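From the pipeline queue, job 12 of 40. The input is one protein chain; the requested action is below.

Action: predict structure.
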Amino acid sequence: MGESGDRGGASAAGEPAADAIALLERLVAFDTVSRNSNLDCIDFIRDHLARHGVAARIQLDATGRKANLYATIGPEDRPGVALSGHVDVVPVDGQTWSRDPFRLHREGGRLYGRGAADMKGFVAACLAAVPRFAARDLKRPIHLLITYDEEVGCHGARALAADLAALPVRPEWVIVGEPSAMRPILGHKGKLSVRCTVRGRAGHSAYPERAANALHAGAEIVAVLCRQQARLIAEGPHDARFTPPWTTCHAGVFRSGSALNVVPEQAEILFEYRVIPGDDPLALLEGIRGEAEAAVLPAMRAAFADAAVVFETGPALPGMDLAEDHPLAALVRSLTGANQAGRVSYGTEGGIYQAAGMSAIVCGPGDIAQAHTPDEWIAESELVACERFLEGLADRLAA
């Protein structure tokens, strides 16, 4: 950790959050970009827990290259509070970093490195607290949920939530440590990803009437999506607790064509919905599908009978919605000193745990504005605040 000329080197003993910073150094050094295996990182976490007398349960994915980790500190015969964090990170490809993204760099009260904010900082703080958790006479347990592939669909959390749901005693409450500047987040939007494939017929651009232009048809579908978004903005439903306060439609990728003088025979559009509570993304998608069949396909099939528009959906990410007066909300407010709790438009694993019957809230160190950025960083003060939060949680569960 650190580089020549900065406050480099391991944290001095006795510094606030020194153990968390040292553990974050180790976690950042694992290149756990979602396309890679996370097993070395999971093995490190399991070994750390074992050194403090905590057994961990490992759940491998279908490939055997990735794993979730589940551990319980305290009594196992009663429901407790789970601390949830993912160790996969987004790629650094194409980003301009001023330092090695997989080597923690300490400067000016900030800790730089891929995943420092999102969300290895929270995981490091939890691991640093393990010796203190283990030394307490907890009346209710603290669970650790460490997952893979959050950044590419929350696949690890889906598998782990299903596993937890089958246990005789599972966590009652889940605190997801996504970066929120240690402010409680009671809800987030749900998300549905869609792949639209348009199949037409190729031809020479000098004779477009003999072909079926998939790019043109795809552009019409994007225009339909834009009109749908305009209706949602104008007509709602609206929920003022979110920013923006409406369901959003977003087309992020449009692939088509090979040469200017060739009519494209295929187009691919990737788009998503991020929905406020009560809105149904599948119903919105049906509206797009209906307009495509009524207004786009007839013209294509007049030129090519086998033209098609196919919509495929990825696994939906459920929204999260915790009541303002829920005891978990009251607990996190009291531990953070926050008088208010917010809601966000980005998704987390919290909605998955809530859908599996566990109440969930988001509260973690760092600023979401730093997530996924080059020179990603977390403030040391955020780790100190998280350390105090975890100490307070242990006090409550030991009372």
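Job complete. Residues 91 and 145 are 23 Å apart (CA to CA).
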